Each structure stands twice: as structure tokens, then as C-alpha cells.
């Protein structure tokens, strides 16, 4: 018998069992899932972009 893996919710930090019966993985509840989705939708989370030179696709050199 294997023991269930316990993880922390990335939003609230609550620990919960990671299993097929946890429908909101990686979140502990629909509330935490919806709060995270709202943060993405309102653009509070951002992934930095790297500008590329249009001619050859290489990154632009940084200027000092």
C-alpha cells in the first residue's frame, strides 16, 4: 500500500492529499483555483518576454 502524497496549495498554503479524488489540483479548493485564475485574467501574473531581432531571430544585445 502506498501512502498518499501531501502537498501545499500554491495560493493559501493549506496542505491536502494529492490524488485523483482532488479535482482542483494543484489547488485545495474551487475558491483558490478561481482566485488564481482571476489573477491571470487581470494580468497580475506576467511572464517576461525577450525581445528578438526580427532579421535573424537572435536576441538583441543589451545596451550599457
Quick recap of the structure?
The chain is of the alpha+beta class. It is built from one helix and two strands, in the order E-E-H.
Distance between the termini: 59 Å
What value does the average pLDDT take?
A: 84
- Record the strand order, biggest sheet: 1-2
Order of helices and strands: EEH
Please give the number of β-strands: 2
- The CATH superfamily of the domain at 5-41 is Erythroid Transcription Factor GATA-1, subunit A
Kindly provide the radius of gyration, computed on alpha-carbon positions and rounded to a whole number of angstroms.
Answer: 19 Å
Number of helices: 1
CATH class of the domain at 5-41: Alpha Beta
Structural class, please? alpha+beta
Low-confidence stretches: none
Please give the CATH architecture of the domain at 5-41.
Answer: 2-Layer Sandwich
CATH domain fold name of the domain at 5-41: Erythroid Transcription Factor GATA-1, Chain A
* Strand proportion: 5-15%
Shape: elongated
**Major sheet attributes:** 2 strands, antiparallel
Helical residues, percent: 10-25%
